[in-house]
Amino acid sequence: MATCISFFYLRFLLQVPFLFLCLLCSVKDSYAEQDKEAEGQLSHSHIVKVSSLLPPTVCNHTSIKGQNKESLEVLSKYGPCSTLNQGKIITPNYLEILRKDRARAIYIQSRIFKPKNLSSDDDHLKEAPAITVSTKPILLYEATFEFYITVSLGTPRQDVTLLLDTGSDLTWTQCKPCLKCFEQNTPLFDPSKSSTYSVVPCESSACLSDFKGRCISNKCIYRIEYVSGNSSGNVLTDRLTITHGSGTFVKYPYIFGCGTNNSADEIDGVTGLMGLNRNPSSFISQTSQEYFSYCFPSSYGSTGYITFGKTDDYIKNKFIKFTPLSTTSKQSPFYDIIVTGITVAGKKLPVASSEYSKSGAFIDSGSTFTTLPTSIYVALRSAFRKQMSKYKMIKPVKSEDIDTCYDFSSYDTVVIPKISIFFKGEVELDLDVKGIMIVFKNDLSQVCLAFQPNTDDPYIILGNNQLRAIEVHHDVAGGRLGFGPGGCS
Predict the structure, then answer these.
(1) What radius of gyration do the chain's Cα atoms show?
(2) Residues ≥6 apart with Cβ < 8 Å to 42
(3) Whether 165 is catalytic
């Protein structure tokens, strides 16, 4: 009996190392799974130094791509690179920007083509009635323009600084003699000093078709109404010159608005605006631009660029992914695109595809925040909050649209989930971290999700904040829009 017990005891002792080894393997596999899961989570996250979210105080001029074409440096009116504020930092008032974004969204949605039938991408679209004042249609909106360029008008040349707006058509600038003008940091354009300017006559086809024949003393006039001001004056033609390095682009005659009565506080020190949409009076249509691209800098302390025409970089670059512009029976002046989905930390939002297909979408450099239909915004917010659960949420800013904020003031580094927007053709737009969260207080005690819900209409507006550090390519002739990675350098 003792011999039998000894035998089984000995057998047990011999099995102990094997059992221990199996236990170690099991623990190792468990840790490996955890490591793999953590690695997966990190691959779908931005690891960010919180100080990098703050606007810089020093300008870093980025080298401009495509220097053999008509490329221009693009500056933010808020940062130290701006020629408007002499190196000073202007802190954006994001609550005011949110209000203006909402007003612009309402205006655009009252004017653009709205989906009539929800069954396909190319359904017929219907235009809402124009806003009218004294029986004459006008524009009525606000905007949060940020990025501007410098070009020249007239002979000899006079420099003007113009905000870029893919949602507008007419280029306009303040002019002498000015009855009422807002403050600008450069001399007013003086047509009397240009040997090549002329007034567009009332009976001209341009005035009749593009400006509805609005005239005073047989001179074609324009008027743009903002909620907080307006710009109006004569419609002129003159020589437009774009210069960069050794390259020069000239368009003559170029139609633009010569503003002599202006009170638009959206302008903030520049002289006017350049419209880049697809209407006949826009820069794109007047100059027959079949292709243009731009990059808005990730940081206020850096510079971006806009390039007219295809560059050698485009020919060599295989990373630009294009999505088709949506087509309609009547072409929209905007750059309409088709959103198919959104991911947070690599996971698709639990939103039915029909929610995206019934929501029209377009890209708008005149809006700051991206606006989403309420159902999509709620899903995005929920997924984002889940990924950010280790950080304590705080009371949101004084806006009904910004409701997901965190206090990062006690952190050196934070982990922020990546957000991607998908478009028709399986095109992915991976947002820069500054297109995901925005600093409302410079002590980092209030950093918020940089999207807002659209409670008025199921429409997606892709704003400039989500386009930071992304090359955006407008293939106008090809009817498509492209996105390229790599920032603005």
Answers:
(1) 27
(2) 415
(3) yes
Q: Are 340 and 422 in contact, with CB atoms under 8 Å apart? A: yes
How far is residue 15's CA from residue 450's CA, in Å, rounded to a whole number? 60
Shortest CA distance to 235 belongs to which of 262, 216, 263, 250?
216
Going by pLDDT thresholds of 50, 70 and 90, the confidence category of residue 106 is low
Closest Cα to residue 320, out of 474, 482, 486, 466? 482
Sign of the dihedral through C-alpha 159, 165, 168, 174: negative
CB 195 within 8 A of CB 232: no
Q: Which residues does 96 contact at the CB level (< 8 Å), separation at least 6?
A: none
pLDDT tens sequence across 371-405: 999 999 999 999 999 999 999 999 876 666 688 99
Phi, psi torsion values for 88, nearest 5 degrees? -85, 155
Beta-carbon contacts of 258 under 8 Å, excluding residues fewer than 6 positions away, are 172, 173, 175, 189, 191, 233, 234, 235, 236
Residue 77: strand, helix, or coil: coil
Q: How far apart are the first and last CA of the chain?
A: 85
- Asked if residues 78 and 92 have their Cβ atoms less than 8 Å apart, the reply is yes
Q: What does the block give as tokens for 421? A: 């927007």
Cross-strand partners of 321: 483
Q: Which residues pair with 14 in a beta bridge?
A: none
Of 309, 358, 308, 364, the residue nearest 336 (C-alpha):
364
**Residue 381 contacts residue 404 (beta carbons within 8 Å):** yes
Residue 186 burial by CB count (10 A; 0-12/13-18/19+): exposed, middle or buried? middle
Kindly state the tokens that stand for 162.
Answer: 């113009």
> 3-state DSSP: the chain helix, strand, coil percent, rounded to 5?
20, 35, 40
Residue 393 · residue 401 · CB < 8 Å: no
- Of 101, 238, 336, 364, which residue is the catalytic one? 364
d(CA 298, CA 465): 9
Q: Residue 37 is encoded by which pair of tokens?
A: 């899961």
Q: Which residues does 102 contact at the CB level (< 8 Å), separation at least 6? A: 401, 452
DSSP one-letter code for 466: G
Determine the 3-state secondary structure of 68 from DSSP.
coil
Using a 10 angstrom Cβ sphere, with 0-12 exposed, 13-18 middle and 19 or more buried, the burial of residue 60 is middle
pLDDT single digits (tens) 152-196: 999 999 999 999 999 889 999 999 998 988 888 889 999 999 999
What is the percent of the chain where pLDDT is above 90? 43
Helix (H/G/I), strand (E/B), else coil: 95: helix
> Which pair of structure tokens corresponds to residue 280?
């006949």
How many C-alpha atoms does 19 have within 13 Å on its Cβ side?
6
Q: Which residue type is seen at 253?
A: P
Q: Which of 123, 165, 210, 336 is catalytic?
A: 165
pTM: predicted TM-score of the whole model, two decimal places: 0.82
